[in-house]
Amino acid sequence: MIRLQKWLSAGGACSRRKAEELIQAGRVAVNGQVVTELGAKADPAADSVTLDGKTVAPDVQQKIYIMLHKPEGVVTTAADQFGRPTVLDYVPEGSRLYPVGRLDYDSSGLIFLTNDGEWTQTLTHPKFESKKTYVALIKGIPSPEALNAFRNGITIDGKKTAPCEAKLEAEEPPNRAKLRIVLHEGRNRQIRKMCEAIGHPVLSLKRVQIGEVKLTNLKRGQWRHLTTQEVAAAFCGPKSI
Q1: Is 116 a catalytic site residue?
Q2: Catalytic residue among 104, 106, 116, 157
Q3: What is the 3-state secondary structure (H, E, C) of 102-135?
């Protein structure tokens, strides 16, 4: 017997956390009967599970893990109501994949795509504090005190951020600087808002690492499958900078 949350996520329908919402909303049925209890289970050998009337097969498909170098101007969703390009436009057609977490429309860099709901759940759940590394080109040269603000937490949207790491990598003319920033939060446009708060707006932003998995030499728009070691390494936080 398999819990419905695991059935839906393992079947590639959604993440386990999203599955809980769908079950409670009455959108999941077992053998034609709507089930809203989160502890409910089903038997792959005997039962049929549907989401919004469509059958979701149990875990019969091969797990797929992909890393993509997302270009700027691409949304991290499966579809976009405004017709903008999505990350799925860059991976093999027909793959039942979904992005792991988010990356801003106007940012570039590393993002994962998968059909493994449990892996997604672990990487995106706040309690696991999966660390992500970014390189930001900012306006102006930040002082040591400004960089310390990152380590102490910066108030954005009325709430203080968790301490993060920020290192000045280079100064670039005219009057610009490159920062390497490591976060384990995933708040909306967090780095851009933090840099704005210290008086150094972001000019460009690129995610270069998730856990111990690095973007390396993938060009914008290119993708490849993750290795078995990288699938495990995505959970690890990068060493202190």
Answers
A1: no
A2: 104
A3: CCCCCCEEEEEEECCHHHHHHHHCHHHCCCEEEE
